[in-house]
Amino acid sequence: MPVVPVYNQQRQEVETIDLPAELFGVEVKEHLFHEVVRAHMAAIRQGTHDTKERSEIKGSVRKIYKQKGTGRARHGNRKASLFVGGGVTFGPHPRSYAIKVNKKVRFAALCSALSRRAEEKQVVVIDDLSLPQIKTKQVAGLLERFDAKKALIVDLPNENLQLSTRNLPNAQYTPVAGLNVYDILKHDTLVISKAAAAALNERIG
To answer: Whole-angstrom Cα distance, residue 205 to residue 197?
Structure first.
């Protein structure tokens, strides 16, 4: 069971806690990262792209020239895909890009991602991440004190922290309910509050 120090926002160690081994101490299965991240990236695609087929093009359906005797190819109207402004052949239409991933696979991948950060000593636990006001500079200073150049900040729902983090190019806030493999792997350091660590154990456990 990984034992990590708990710091305050001034990087003063106040206590130590045991992170649950079933979340932060499992064998890292890297092949699951590809499967889950691929499904995550596919799920956020809107899939709203659409092209018009010749039946959806507005315009005249008059035959443009007679069938025989002109030496040219036979055409019924200007809506054919060969003409400028005509329909698109085999073009994209609205669809879902969702890829099914079993719940057990998602769970194993999330635990592997958390364990990878724990192995790298890149899990920073802070006793309290509450902020008295919305202040981006305060969050930037906090991350600088912990040498977190690219950090994922995890806490319970915290509006001040969320609004203070959104303008930082190398930091991202996410609540416990939104924690996912993609965001963990995208950021080098996991900054998590003590309350969020307990809530994460309850959510996954």
So the answer is: 12
Domain boundaries, the chain: 3-27+102-204
The widest CA-to-CA distance across the chain, in whole angstroms, is: 93
Q: How far is CA 27 from the centre of its chain?
A: 23
Annotate 129-175 with DSSP letters as a single string.
---SS--HHHHHHHHHHTT-SSEEEEESS-HHHHHHHTT-TTEEEEE
Looking at this protein, which amino acid is placed at residue 82? L
pTM of this prediction exceeds 0.70: yes
Residues 169-182 have a mean pLDDT of 94
Cα separation, 159 vs 130, in Å, equals 9
Please give the CATH superfamily to which domain 3-27+102-204 belongs: Ribosomal protein L4/L1 (3.40.1370.10)
Rounded alpha-carbon distances, angstroms, from residue 121 to 2, 8, 98, 146, 150: 10, 18, 34, 12, 14
Helices then strands, each counted (H, E), the chain: 7, 6
Residue range 153-166, pLDDT digits in tens: 999 999 999 999 99
| Cα gap 14→140, rounded to integer Å | 22
